[in-house]
Amino acid sequence: MERTLVLIKPDAVQRGLIGEIILRLERRGLKLIAAKFLQVNQELAETHYAVHKGKPFYEGLVRYITSSPVMAMVWEGPNAIAAVRQTMGATRPTEAAPGTIRHDFALEVGRNLTHASDSPETAAQEIALWFKPEELYPWDRATDAWIMGQN
Ligand code: UDP
């Protein structure tokens, strides 16, 4: 079982895609265990994107993520990290596979709608950065056995 941090970034919020993105993750069988809607401040943006500091797109990326509220969530499921990134599609929307969120709703790498953790290590770091432990609510879902094969 894995957990992953998902951000619905400012462009997706502004474009009314919160529901569409949640729908796709929920329909896939992933389980939402934490969510908050917030305005990202400079410090959180810089910590979250620290790995990109110094790259040509870094300043613009920090401006983008702080430009308007985001929806931050933790999703859980077997192989959740790979599954969510697959549902999002490649970083560059023009390289994202048809049927993925970035293919279906985006054109530019700098406005690619979502963020999702890319490894178990970054998932753990990012979940701890965005959520306090008591803000995570694992729960039993009646359909878990049908989705996760635990029967
Ligand atoms: N990004 C950008 N220009 C680039 C590469 C990345 O604006 O040339 C932005 C884009 O929003 C991307 C984020 O930086 O989602 C983080 O980049 P990463 O390579 O980690 O992609 P992701 O994991 O989000 O697919």
Ligand inventory reads: uridine-5'-diphosphate
The strands making up the biggest β-sheet line up spatially as 2-3-1-4
Number of distinct helices: 8
CATH class of the domain at 2-38 and 70-137: Alpha Beta
Indicate the structural class. Answer: alpha+beta
Question: Helicity range of the residues?
Answer: 40-55%
Strand content: 15-25%
Tell me the CATH superfamily of the domain at 2-38 and 70-137.
Nucleoside diphosphate kinase-like domain
CATH level-two architecture of the domain at 2-38 and 70-137: 2-Layer Sandwich
Average pLDDT confidence is 97
CATH fold annotation of the domain at 2-38 and 70-137: Alpha-Beta Plaits
Query: What is the number of strand segments?
Result: 4
The biggest beta sheet reads: 4 strands, antiparallel
Rg, Å, rounded: 15 Å
Give unreliable regions as ranges: none
Shape: globular
User: What gap, in angstroms, lies between the N and C termini?
Assistant: 15 Å
Order of helices and strands: EHHEHHEHHEHH
Subcellular location: Cytoplasm
Cofactor: Mg(2+)
Active site: 115
Protein name: Nucleoside diphosphate kinase
Topology of this structure?
Elements: E1 2-8, H1 10-14, H2 18-28, E2 31-38, H3 42-48, H4 58-65, E3 70-77, H5 80-88, H6 101-105, E4 114-116, H7 120-130, H8 144-148
Uridine-5'-diphosphate is lined by residues 57, 61, 91, 109-110, 112, 115, 118.
Main location: cytoplasm
Enzyme class: transferase
GO cellular component, one term: cytoplasm
Describe, in plain words, how this protein is organized in 3D.
- With about 150 residues, this protein is α+β, with helices and mostly antiparallel strands.
- The protein has a domain at about 1-40 and about 70-135: Alpha-Beta Plaits (2-Layer Sandwich).
- Helices cover about 40% and strands about 15% of the residues.
- Strands 2-3-1-4 form a four-stranded antiparallel sheet.
- The radius of gyration is 15 Å and the shape is globular.
- The structure holds uridine-5'-diphosphate (UDP).
- Uridine-5'-diphosphate (UDP) binds next to loops.
